[in-house]
């Protein structure tokens, strides 16, 4: 653990006092712009090649399929190996996949199966990267600054969303999709350089006595922790059926409003206005929010989507997106922070692997299903149906677990490892 003492200080940006957090934060800011630029370009490329919502859903599903298959493994890697070296490797793979797709587009050689393969490759990199990165975040700052760091990282991610989609939309309109992929490939280089420059002596590593906790024990831990379990159920349904702005905005922009790539990219920026505001507010308030808070905002987000799908014009749709983005990000930041700050350090990586499997694991099935349903009943009814599923799932989870959401977290890992069984009353 770093020998540098951490002084408690107020302010929304206090995590910047930590050298490692600061240097990686600004590198990630550039990388996030590139990542959002690629998302828009990839969606638009699929629509150029096929014009099909079904194919758009398949590509999105393939990109998130590795999260279902490998996030738990990524969590184990986070607990056992040097996180910085793993992150360098995943960023190299991400850069190569973006570069190859950009070159294929710019040489007029791209086919749909190329997009399938490279979306899966990018997803594979992300499936390992995400739990390792989430766990590594807790080593960049002192324990009392973790919540602030999570909120600032979310603000960073959504600041990229403010710039990346709009930038990509204009680039596509002027130069086609290829340069957006090249931009993303270059942006990875800044993260790789920052990771190399980090100082090991300034990392905050907690001493962990249990080095061989199995994934099965981590699953039992989550199930025994009804507060964690309820948060993860909420995250699964919100992420699988609600956080589909890629598909929703692409089809609403093209099919319902008859707009082009610049307008589609602009919708991503409108979402980001709300998301960025939520992230900044979370960094400022910086207080623990429990499972009931997460569930309430998840349900409000679903209600906002029901309103969204009924709006008659591009303008009204666009100007309502910030509300959806604010509610969605408040839900996810609160869930992420709760998981990171209440999980025993001995299995934090594995639990974050479970969390990310839950967060992204439904998309390989949900995204193709949503794309297919949209071809049958239209995108508006599809959004409404998905929002109703979210509301029902959250309501049922609350009714079943409402009396078990305050169980103390401090003793549960030892109890789980010793085989303690919790009653269900």
Task: Give a verbal description of the structure.
With 425 residues, the protein is mainly alpha-helical. It has a single domain (14-417), classed as Growth Hormone, Chain: A, CATH 1.20.1250.20. It is 78% helix and 0% strand. It has helices at residues 19-49, 53-80, 83-106, 112-140, 146-175, 178-197, 215-224, 226-241, 245-256, 261-285, 291-309, 314-342, 348-361, 363-377, 379-401, 412-417. The longest helix is centred in the N-terminal third of the chain and has 31 residues, at 19-49. Residues 1-9 and 420-425 have low confidence and may be disordered.
Helix and strand arrangement:
Elements lengths: L18 H31 L3 H28 L2 H24 L5 H29 L5 H30 L2 H20 L17 H10 L1 H16 L3 H12 L4 H25 L5 H19 L4 H29 L5 H14 L1 H15 L1 H23 L10 H6 L8
CATH topology: Growth Hormone, Chain: A
* Radius of gyration (Å): 21 Å
Q: Which percent bin holds the helix content?
A: over 70%
Give the CATH H-level superfamily. MFS general substrate transporter like domains
In the CATH hierarchy, what is the class? Mainly Alpha
| Low-pLDDT runs | 1-9, 420-425
Largest sheet: none
Overall shape? globular
What key attributes describe this structure?
mainly alpha, Growth Hormone, Chain: A, 16 helices
Briefly say what this structure is:
By secondary structure, the protein is mainly α. The chain has helices at residues 19-49, 53-80, 83-106, 112-140, 146-175, 178-197, 215-224, 226-241, 245-256, 261-285, 291-309, 314-342, 348-361, 363-377, 379-401, 412-417. The longest helix has 31 residues, at 19-49.
